[in-house]
Amino acid sequence: MRIRYEQEKDIISNVLTSLGANDEEARVSAEVLAEGDVRGFTSHGISRLSNMIRKIKSGKIKTNVAIKITEKLPAVALVDGNHGLGHPVALEAMKISIQKAKSYGISSVGIYNTSHFGIAGYYVEQAMKENLIGIVSCTTDPMVHPFGGGQRLFGTNPIAIGIPHKKHPILLDMATSTASAGKIGEFRKMGKEIPAGWGVDKNGNPTTIPKAALAGALSPFGGYKGSGLSFIIAILAGPLVNAEYGSRVKGDYEIDKYATKGDFMITINPEAFVSRKDLEKHIEHFIDELKSSPNALGSDEILYPGEREYRTRRNQLETGITLPDWIWDDVEATAKEFGLEKNLLLT
Amino acid sequence: MRIRYEQEKDIISNVLTSLGANDEEARVSAEVLAEGDVRGFTSHGISRLSNMIRKIKSGKIKTNVAIKITEKLPAVALVDGNHGLGHPVALEAMKISIQKAKSYGISSVGIYNTSHFGIAGYYVEQAMKENLIGIVSCTTDPMVHPFGGGQRLFGTNPIAIGIPHKKHPILLDMATSTASAGKIGEFRKMGKEIPAGWGVDKNGNPTTIPKAALAGALSPFGGYKGSGLSFIIAILAGPLVNAEYGSRVKGDYEIDKYATKGDFMITINPEAFVSRKDLEKHIEHFIDELKSSPNALGSDEILYPGEREYRTRRNQLETGITLPDWIWDDVEATAKEFGLEKNLLLT
Questions:
Q1: Do A274 and B78 touch (CB under 8 A)?
Q2: Which of A70, B128, B140, B183 has the largest count of CB atoms under 10 Å?
Q3: Residues in Cβ contact with B120 at an 8 Å cutoff, skipping those fewer than 6 apart
Q4: Which residues constitute the domain of residue A205?
Q5: Are residues A161 and A200 both part of a single domain?
Q6: Of B225, B228, B305, which has the smallest distance from its Cβ to A232's Cβ?
Q7: Are residues B116 and B40 in the same domain?
Q8: How high is the mean pLDDT in each 10-residue block of chain A (347 residues)?
Q9: If you ran DSSP here, which 8-state letter would residue A144 be given?
Q10: Residues A198 and A73 in one domain
């Protein structure tokens, strides 16, 4: 199905408001999910709404929440999200990080007692809008085996890093698994095998059968290097910020449990190092050089991080967002189950 | 050949002192190089000494250098290394970062006008000794093609991240290329083909022939994700810190040119977030869980980042460091060329 960006935001916002979220919570969660879908990350868009509805109904995501901020040293804060919606909690935390980075040059904010926050890149972009560099990562439910291991122990532990630039905003936003569970699910629906290296079966053996990988574990990207990065994120967005580690991490899949995942952010003020004008100019020249570098065989174009997603975003803002039918069917079914279907009316 | 750790340090220190380095410069450079070799990173050990000798002789690495520090905001510093030896310059920068992280909770220091600094992990360890988390990266001579491209544009742009722990210090120290040029050189010497995905030839086509890859370009690790990470590091340790980008980056290979590479460090004080005791305990439990997770087929053990290198270090501190003969032959030849052979006497 196809849905307009503003329409998707309205629907999500209406659903959340009817469940008790205040205007700001509803607005922010709706915007983050729509931003996921509009740039093609359909695994991080409205597809998450069903679980959010269920967890709000079960009391394991709370609405109308005030976060609690602890500041032991001036450039750092630790945020207790009080089990609120992950999106507004993370946005508030990023606003703190932005203010601190402006004052001190760099800052870090950690978050615990919070739920899934959608695409990490959204929060990085808030820093980029203020001409700051953002780094945002989080832990998720265990789905990925460590390098050398055969069972789920790490989350997909994404990391997003953004560098502001007027013409070429750079935004790397990636999971530390080779492919997402959502992507493997698509191969399954198409009846296709997945490439080698994407996952292992229940016994820890490499598999190209989507169903087997989904029952087993996803593989980390880039061998021991990506696995190491995922492990580091598991600690930074885990025990460092008072959140859980390893198999104890709960994201948004278990309806009747509070999430125990964590978020970790760093914000850097480039003007603490060099002038904005020089940085803009040098990045532009670097990207010119990247673009004029010869392509590899079979490659049409060298892309910098974020370029593809921003193109998709521009296109889908015009044409509407294409969503797999199963996502909409699932949202509809859950809405009906809880008597929320009037909020889904497409206008 | 085999050399004792202390012996290697003495030799390097003596050579550098005889070339005009002051005691601290000689001591630090010697220690960093020996630390590379002792943990098995022979591409980052005494194998670098020949180039250092040549660049000091040509005036493109300066000795007896005072760094210049600019502080625009309290938690950040930018260091002009005045073309000194990369190791002592980076150590001084890390000391600044450590002090700032203790005061503010997080800090960042950038460095330009500096030369190759050896293993990034050495500086991270200085933070770890102070119970701080360290992140250190740098740019290097272009050797790696971007994802989708077929020619050298990125350095091997390493990143090291360390988390202090009494029993299990964690230290991820990796290049963002799949394999190092040194490793590919070893395959060449053994007359073996390299695995697919390590490099491309001069025309940008994937190759398994070591010589062709060394004449072409190394491949980034982990496809577009590793390539994206390398690009981000190229900016953070490049234009952000007043250093060069892309093909303009010079490391230590060109004898008659100043290096134009840059370094970028972040130091985090964990106690700004949680108690040291809690963090120690949770990391220990997480590693227990990692170690008791089932192995993949063909894997004997799941290692956490740094574990293998620290084992190698402990072993080689006892048995002596094994160096490929060509490395020692090269050091000897260069020392003779410049009349420095008396410094190489093994005692």
A1: yes
A2: B140
A3: B136, B137, B138, B158, B159, B160, B173
A4: 181-216
A5: no
A6: B305
A7: no
A8: 96 98 98 97 94 97 98 98 98 98 98 97 98 98 96 97 98 95 85 94 94 96 97 98 97 93 98 98 98 92 97 98 94 96 82
A9: B
A10: no
